[in-house]
Design brief:
single chain; about 220 residues; alpha+beta; six-stranded mixed beta sheet; 5 helices
């Protein structure tokens, strides 16, 4: 079975263009606390991500905006990347890349009361948008990596601390099956797992954690 690596965060370098493929660096910070009994702490690691021109074009982001966005990269480690191109500690061949929600930057849009006489204009303006949307729905798009609604970050299962009260409980078969079907179809759980943002302690969604652990997922989506 091929080794899998998931990296979440912002690029820490500009994109290097090598013709048929591109490369950039990303950094993963170490976990603040190691599991009980382990005297070592994990360190930050810099990865050099290599992706194809086609993968980059699908993001619809220009190279100037790229370092300002946040991404989830899933790939496989590679030792054959030339030294002068692999400035990070570990080279990663990108299998999937997707822009994810930048936590802490959600903005609530104030409700606006439509002015008199503007309702008809709004309806007319919305028609071209609806028609364009229908045309887009007809076109088959490549299946994207599922990022469940409400996801704030991606976290290793080993970093999530599970209270003893949860460990004494076994989720029902029906709940397990529903989560397993989502993992088989989308590669991850259907909804983010709820954790404490400071202690990383599991607060809710133990059924999803339980099945993800059983399926040996590298990372899961979380919500604070």
């Amino acid at each position: 079975m091929a080794h899998k690596i998931s990296v979440t965060g912002r690029p820490t370098s500009s994109i290097q263009d090598y013709g048929k493929y591109l490369a950039f660096d990303m950094e993963e910070k170490g976990s603040p606390n190691a599991p009980k009994g382990i005297p070592f702490k994990s360190n930050a690691i810099t990865y050099t991500i290599v992706l194809s021109q086609k993968q980059f074009n699908k993001l619809n982001i220009n190279q100037e905006e790229f370092p300002q966005r946040r991404f989830l990269v899933q790939g496989e480690p590679c030792l054959d990347i030339p030294f002068e191109q692999c400035t990070g500690e570990i080279g990663v061949i990108c299998m999937q890349i997707q822009e994810i929600e930048d936590k802490g930057k959600e903005k609530k849009q104030p409700k606006q009361t439509p002015k008199k006489g503007s309702r008809a204009n709004n309806q007319e303006e919305s028609k071209p948008q609806e028609e364009s949307k229908q045309e887009q729905e007809k076109k088959p798009d490549p299946k994207p990596l599922l990022v469940p609604k409400g996801t704030r970050d991606w976290m290793s299962l080993d970093d999530i601390k599970v209270p003893e009260s949860f460990l004494q409980f076994t989720p029902g078969i029906a709940k397990q099956k529903a989560v397993e079907e989502s993992i088989e179809k989308n590669g991850t759980v259907d909804k983010p797992i709820i954790v404490n943002p400071e202690t990383y302690e599991l607060l809710d969604s133990y059924s999803r954690y339980y099945v993800a652990k059983k399926k040996k997922l590298d990372r899961v989506p979380v919500h604070y």
